[in-house]
Amino acid sequence: MRLALTYNVKHDNGGNADMQSVSANAAKYVNRDLVENYPERLDDTYAEWDSMETIDAVKSALVSENHEVELVEANDDSYFKLKELKPDFVFNVAEGFYGASRESQIPSMLEMLNIPFTGSDSITIGICHDKSRCKEILSYYNIPNSKFFITDTPVKSGSDLNFPKFVKPLHEGSSKGIYNSSVVNSVEELNSEIERVKSCYGQPALVEDYITGKEFTVAMLGNGNDVRVLPIVEINLDTVPEGFNKIYSYEVKWFFDTRENQLDIFRCPAEIDRKIYSHIEKVCKDAFRVLRIRDWARIDIRLDGNNVPNVIEINPLPGILPDPADNSCYPKAARNVGMDYNKMINAVLHEAVKRNSGN
Length: 359
Ligand SMILES: Nc1ncnc2c1ncn2[C@@H]1O[C@H](COP(=O)(O)OP(=O)(O)OP(=O)(O)O)[C@@H](O)[C@H]1O
Ligand SMILES: [Mg+2]
What we know:
The protein has 359 residues and is α+β, with helices and mostly antiparallel strands. It has helices at 17-27, 32-37, 52-63, 78-85, 105-113, 122-129, 131-140, 187-201, 250-256, 274-290, 329-336, 341-356; strands spanning 2-7, 68-73, 89-92, 148-151, 165-169, 183-184, 205-209, 215-222, 228-229, 233-235, 266-267, 295-303, 309-315. It has one domain (2-356): ATP-grasp fold, B domain (D-amino Acid Aminotransferase, Chain A, domain 1). It contains twelve helices and 13 strands. A hairpin with a 5-residue loop joins strand 12 and strand 13 (309-315). The two termini are 18 Å apart. Bound molecules: adenosine-5'-triphosphate (ATP) and magnesium ion. Residues 300, 313 line the site of magnesium ion (MG).
């Protein structure tokens, strides 16, 4: 097939005044030692985007099955490039840049041009990227997730709230804006985090009940009744350094767990009670179905005090770092069932093509 690969690629961060102010702002909230030792890791502007290494790996996976592949960067020229190229199919990993529905922009263009593509459509991708909209749908279908509200103004002191709460930006990924300080135990701490999210990210804060049980992430592949749950990955939060909250925060993902110094944070398949394992699989299949996700996704789960799997959030465009030396959950789960990177990428394409042809 003649394919296009739509993507956003990480830029060299140097010298941009806007980005420096983002870093300076975030530095107020991150552990001082980390800021001093790794100032270059503080800027999270492009944390969700892929490296050229990942884009090249996806392209070469597709080429290995004899497809022709054109790279189309997601920017304000993409529509015209796609219109001119008219590929048979698009492999989409573009995260977009502007606005809460930025991940929907390439899917919308492709829908307008009537070009089929891998992954979820613009509606589902947009809904999943707004964590409160996603939770509203999960709640409607009684799929467990933590109680929440959203706000961009402080809550009144004396408000009737149970603590601890968890505070995060409404529409970010890659743990952007999720620091150790996201776990709050008082109205003062909560208001400081609401202010942080507003000033650093210009968006409301999602305030959730803090779920403290084991954490898992679940790679899904396929469609409809045939959707496969790949081996569940446990995020072993015991590896989070002393003094830090047991969460998979920005600090853990980007400061503590690096290629040079990999944390032993994933266990795949998760070693847990069979009943809980099956319950997680069921919750993920239900979430996949009600949100009308297509082809692939990665769903984050945490167990509550009754060992009920709660959906933390859903990633219809999962991270796919190709080098096993980087901790990346979707490729890790795929490797566990004997799918190397090339096979995994082509499996997603096959699922999308099969869905598109109605089989
Ligand atoms: N309500 C919650 N209770 C407990 N922990 C939470 C809660 N929400 C988030 N977390 C912790 O914070 C981490 C990051 O949160 P979340 O998955 O929402 O962020 P993200 O940036 O969308 O992640 P990703 O990198 O998977 O895109 C979770 O993996 C989990 O450890
Ligand atoms: Mg997550």
